[in-house]
Amino acid sequence: MSESPSPDDAGLTTGALAHRLGVAPTTLRSWDRRYGIGPAVRADGRHRRWQPSDVAVLEAMCRLTSSGVPPADAARAAKDAVLRPAAEAEDAVPERTGTPGAPALGGGDVRQECRGLARAAVRLDAPAVAERLEAAVDRHGLAVAWQEVMVPTLHAVGRKWASSGDRYVEVEHLLSWQVSTALRRAPHAVVKGGREGGPGPVLLACVPGEQHSLPLEALNAGLLQLGVPTRMFGAAVPAEALTAAVRRLGPVAVVLWSQTRSTASLPLARHLADTRWGVTGARRAPTVVLGGAGWAGRPAPGLPRPTGLSEALTLLAGAQGHGTA
User: Fold this and answer.
1) What 3-state DSSP class applies to 322?
2) Which stretch of DSSP H or E encloses residue 256?
């Protein structure tokens, strides 16, 4: 379902678009008549106004024709490459989303935001993706934006491109990078250094072999917003490095992320939970928190496993002596 442009987003005129693409306005009109590559919406039913999806089709066609593809073939390929994936991405977004522990947005609101985000990603329109992500964080707060907008769109895009083989992998990569950038840019509190003799920082790391770090980045951003000191180590941290970091930092908690069962290592988690530091008679050990689907179905007494970002923030902020209100 297409959306009508707002008065502030009336689109490009034919002359402006022709100048942008380096072709004559008559060429655009000819392509519209011959191949059906024209604006989806016309102002007042008559005047052409080219929206971002129309521009993306024409840019694709120009690239193809400049490489020697006949115009008729280029038109079909351009429409197939841009318009069909956009419709598929829209269809892939679930009607309702929700994560335990997260305030639920209205079903229509979240679907509309996810659809707009997916469309921008399909067009590889990085500025539009960044703008939509920033707006979601500003409107809903980081935790809700992550659980209700970012995650559902990432999952929907991932499922769609996975079902298409290796096609459109670039869309998923662009969206993931922009989400990571938005998380790093999210506003956060001034994080003060640890008090002498007080609790250490929260250490966040993916287990060895695990490359999926976005959920940890969301947790890191959420903790920083609460003023909780963190140390983010990212993807695939070797076991020896984790042990060394725990001994050097004396963290109040260690979050181990595992996306897949093959990377989840309970022996490593228990080893870190048993790692102690400090003077004799006052030795400490971290709380080891398990995150990700890789730990599912594995009994781990004494190792908390939050069900979502909000629950993890509450747990870790409490361990640090910070409130989440």
Assistant:
1) coil
2) strand 253-257
The answer to whether the CB of 121 falls within 8 A of the CB of 175 is: yes
Q: Which fold has domain 93-185?
A: 1.10.1240
pTM of this structure: 0.66
Q: What stretches of the chain show up as alpha helix (H) in DSSP?
A: 14-21, 25-35, 52-66, 71-92, 107-122, 126-140, 142-145, 151-162, 169-185, 214-225, 239-249, 266-273, 309-320
User: If you classify domain 7-88 with CATH, what class do you get?
Assistant: mainly alpha
Let me know: does 145 contact 136? Beta carbons within 8 Å: yes
Beta bridge partners of 204: 232, 255
Contact 306, 291 (CB under 8 A): yes
The architecture CATH gives domain 202-320 = 3-Layer(aba) Sandwich (3.40)
- The rounded distance, in Å, linking the Cα atoms of 55 and 44 is 20
pLDDT of residue 26: 86
Q: What average pLDDT does the segment 29-43 reach?
A: 77
Chain mean position to CA 51: 25
CA–CA distance, 308 with 215 (Å, rounded to integer): 10
**What phi-psi label fits residue 204: left (phi over 0), alpha (psi between -120 and 50 degrees) or beta?**
beta
Q: Where in the chain is the domain with CATH 1.10.1660.10?
A: 7-88
Task: Tell me the chain's radius of gyration from C-alpha atoms.
Answer: 24
What is the DSSP annotation of 208-226? TT----HHHHHHHHHHHHT
Sign, Cα dihedral of 35, 17, 117, 46: negative
Domain ranges in the chain with CATH number 3.40.50.280: 202-320
Instruction: Enter the DSSP assignment of 295.
Output: G
pLDDT digits (tens, 9 = 90+) for 273-287: 998 876 665 568 899
Cβ–Cβ < 8 Å for 276, 200:
no
